[in-house]
Amino acid sequence: LGNGEKFGLNLSYIVQEEPLGLAHAVKSAEDFVKKEEFVLYLGDNLIKTDLGKLIEKFERERPSSLILVDRVDDPSRFGVVVMDEKNEKVVKLVEKPKEFISDLAIIGMYIFDERIFDAIERIRPSARGEYEITDAIGKLIEMDLKVGIVKLDGWWMDIGSPGDLLKANERILKENEKKFKVRASVVKTRTFGEIDVPENSHIEGSILEGPVVVGENVRIVGSKVGPNVSLGDGVNVEGSVLENSIVMRDSRIENTILMNSVIGEKVSIVGNGEKVKILVGDCGKLEIFE
Questions:
Q1: Of 133, 158, 183, which one is at a domain's C-terminal end?
Q2: Same-domain check for residues 187 and 247
Q3: What is the pLDDT of residues 190-217, one digit of tens each?
Q4: What pTM did the predictor assign?
């Protein structure tokens, strides 16, 4: 993401010095947030919803906190909210209830005002040694401050594992494929389905089977790419087959059949023409021998 300029944004980053929980992370941003309201969005969830509706309700009702929730079939897998009799405000939060008390799962998006910082000051670490955001919201309720909810009007996915990330990639590609265009130099290449390639990338002697998204300055030579593949900026693919995979920026894939894989940034993979399914972190180097 960098400084956000590419997306028309101005991004700042705040480092949480120790991994002491979500509430601790929020507290780390207090000096930056000051007295403004803010959105907390957990990075391991992918949520499609109209954020504007959440903000409108928050500004209209002025709760101390507003939580995005969704009805789920198995509440025992989630933190849930329990509402009052009028269904107007949250009376408590329960983490992974063993018995049914609510099917309104907390799915990783919240709006807070400055009072959350006082609530965080009043909580203690949980049994796992972390300051939990659910405990901080519970403290808001104990302080007799209103906590409300908004029910999800779109969809959400957990993307906390490589498999989940690949499912999310497939869904996003298919939902956006009607917007795709091929603007790049494409030489002796066949394309099927919806492909998105910017004009400064180069495709030669290859087959692209959509949905596929290619970033800036990507080079694909003598390869088959797709379906369900996303390639970050600066990726180089040569003599390879890629299906249902994500390859992040500035990585190189050569002579490899890559299936159901997630490849980090600045990775080099030189294969032996055999099929592999792998997860490789940033800056990794992998050579596959016979």
A1: 158
A2: yes
A3: 999 999 999 999 999 999 999 999 999 9
A4: 0.83
